[in-house]
Amino acid sequence: MTDTAPRPTLEAVAARAGVSRATVSRVVNGGDGVREALVARVRRAVEELGYVPNQAARSLVTRRHDAVAVVIAEPETRVFADPFFALQLRGISKELTAHDNQLVLLLTEGRDDHVRVGRYLAGGHVDGALVFSLHLDDPLPGLIQHAGVPTVFGGRPGWSESGGDAVYVDSDNRGGAREAVRHLVGLGRSRVAHITGPLDQTSAADRLEGFRDVMPDADPRLVEESDFTPAGGERAMRELLERRPDVDAVFAANDLMAAGALRVLRESGRRVPEDVAVIGFDDMLPVAEQTDPPLTTVRQDIEGMGRLMARLLLERLGHRTGEGAEGAPSSVVLPTTLVRRASA
Fold first, then answer.
1. pLDDT of the residue at 323
2. What is the pTM of this model?
3. Cβ pair 215, 181 in contact under 8 A
4. Which residues is 337 bridged to in the sheet?
5. ∠ CA(280), CA(133), CA(229), 5° rounding?
6. Which string of DSSP letters, residue by residue, matches 242-273?
7. What local confidence, expressed as pLDDT, does residue 340 receive?
8. Residue 186 in contact with residue 123, Cβ under 8 Å?
9. How far from the centroid of its chain's Cα atoms is residue 291's Cα?
């Protein structure tokens, strides 16, 4: 065993800086009313001594925990297998780290987890929450509202409990889908199929609407609901080929399902894009650039969406405490772009 050095105290910092303990506390906790010269002396003493503020004591003074919960309404098997979540978490983490906030990750596997997450949020452990991948019947919005935690949602809310004041970040899912399908039609394809995501999520429903905007008279047999996974894309593509073997184009609602569809098309002897053109949605480079052939897809800035969600929440927290700019933050819908590669 080795002896550890005693942890520097506020009193030690005060003695080193030649100021009162109360002055050190105000500087460390971000309070006002301290002259700049004294602030500089305190900060220098903090650095020299290696003082680390006691977060529990600091929270009593500031009523802030400098921690944000990130709630993903999906099982962990899905979260850790889908690069979409990694990209969004990376954006969130970068923004929170830049503002000295901690990220607390909460996943929901089932109803018991919803209750646990709601109880945790209501317990005052975090300053706010970032919530995404919600489904229409998800109880989380009601639990969050009951907890009274400032929240920013990833994706357009589609549940009645959210009201009109929910702040969210989303992509132009419907417009991006329209651009994808128009591109396929422009290539001369007339039997365009669509593999949807789960239609109890607004992103999937909006992409289906974008498909229908361009193909209002499409055969219903050319639409197959799936689950945003590669295996789901494979299953959907097999169903579509069985019902409509003459399909000449596929718009999949995300890149993972498009990758699954490509595998099935190759197994069935169909050439891409000569026989069947394929377009995905997301432009996740680990997927889109490594499919065979490389995937034409609709790009949304997933990491940027994560950063923007965190930024809006931090602005909302500042607004609530009087530290932010005038006016509460509002929702943002980001544009999408079609990225053309070899599959269409």
1. 53
2. 0.80
3. yes
4. 299
5. 40
6. HH-TT--EEEESSHHHHHHHHHHHHHTT--TT
7. 97
8. no
9. 24
- Span 58-72, pLDDT tens digits: 544 445 568 999 999
Token code pair at residue 155 = 């994706």
In angstroms, rounded to a whole number, what is the distance separating the alpha carbons of residues 131 and 159?
14
- 1 Cβ neighbours under 8 A, 6+ residues apart: none
With a cut of 50, say whether residue 161 has pLDDT above it. no
Task: Using DSSP bridges, classify how beta strands 332-334 and 277-282 pair: parallel, antiparallel or unpaired.
Answer: unpaired
> Which amino acid is located at 311 in the chain?
R
**Closest to 230 measured CA to CA, from 266, 257, 195, 252:** 257
SS3 call for 192 = strand
- Owner of token pair 């065993």: 1
Here the tokens at position 327 are: 């006016």
Specify the amino acid at residue 151. T
Task: Give 27's contacts (C-beta < 8 A, 6+ positions apart).
Answer: 34, 38, 39, 42, 43
Question: What is the residue type of 327?
Answer: G
How confident is the model over 321-339, as pLDDT tens digits?
455 545 667 899 999 999 9
Q: How confident is the model at residue 94 (pLDDT cuts 50, 70, 90)?
A: very high
Tracing tokens 């422009």 back to the chain, one arrives at 186
Look up residue 36 and give its amino acid. E
Q: Which two tokens stand for residue 147?
A: 């907890």
Alpha-carbon separation of residue 203 from 168, 173, 231, 329 (angstroms): 13, 6, 19, 22
